[in-house]
Fold each of these.
Amino acid sequence: MNFPEYRPRRLRKNDLFRRLIRETRLSVDSFIFPLFATVGKGVKKPIDSMPGHFQLSVELLVKEVQECRELGIPAVLLFGIPERKDEAASGAFARDGIVQQAVRRIKDKVPDILVVTDVCLCEYTDHGHCGMIEKGEVHNDMTLEVLAETAVSHAKAGADMVAPSAMMDGQVGAIREGLDEAGFETVPILAYSAKYASCFYGPFREAAESASRFGDRKAYQMDPANSDEAVREMNLDVQEGADILMVKPALPYLDVIRRAKEEFDLPVAAYNVSGEFAMIKAAARLGWIDEEKAMMESLTAIRRAGADIILTYFAREAAKVLQR
């Protein structure tokens, strides 16, 4: 039998060869670890659908951040669960809001880690939607003012970067203008540019207590069937001043991550969301898959697709694997 000159198996025959020619390398430097801050003291409330994750009062959250820093994780992303929700989402932009408190404490105790804040309203509204409601619908332009005010309040507390996720038209431009006018022109925006109306957010909505009381988010989050629309959304965010473009979720949208990387000259982030995390945890608990291998394969796939940054609930576990 005649073989071609090139035999691919020559370079697969042992681990040293495989490491030598590996195309995609996963690094802890790419990770952002999401955390959930809540009011009170000594609070560590388990999130049942996300094993190993908790709603944490600020002093305990700081300890989690310190562990992240020790593992080499460069950034955390903060979500807040306020004591009270209302129609105006007042907890989102309050000077003493839960995220603002957490940012100040982290920057005081762990100054050498980046603090990114989620800028959205669903955690703070009593109806659970990501914007202001008028006549039973989310009002885009009214919401922009509140998002900008929220972003500025985070920057005043010491946030290193803000991440608007409400999927309102013009949100990046409104936030960029608000930050610049308030003297925070050096604070970058990580834009949730292609955020899909996905079923994979279920565990997060338990964690953030942000399920909507009526309707759904399909009028502002993207149709999972669309890819060209994602490029249009990203192009708008680039024009409005985004510094990093994000695709969310990650694994069902690897093709969109690849398009973002190929079509835009900006760093690309991907959010390995709660449902993706929970599926691996649940299957591993049942003995159906190897959790560590599934975790690392999934994160490598996201990196291979083109993501420079991965927001993932696996960040700590993956960092420990990479240390080994």
Amino acid sequence: MAIGERIRELRIKKGLSLTELANRAGVAKSYISSVERQLQLNPSIQFLNKISRVLDVTVEKLIHENNNENEETDIDIEWLELAKEAMESGISKEQFKQFLEFQKWQKSNSSNN
């Protein structure tokens, strides 16, 4: 399900019209409509933050396809923060992959001794 479909579904479940959601979130009704109709496929994080607050859900719930409350596959917030910190420090994906490979190699060598 696309982001727009999830927003529409949550809006309807909450009993909100497009106008009510737009007014409460402080965004244009036409923009919400274009997101829901999938004319706008890449809404900004600011937009998603505003909408998620009114709909009482996390931004992640709007973005991710699988939103089962019982699923244990959600990424730990601390891991997300560490990944964000690594990105902000200038580490490339390739450098991070090399670091992980080194850690795996080091662990396998220490368990062999």
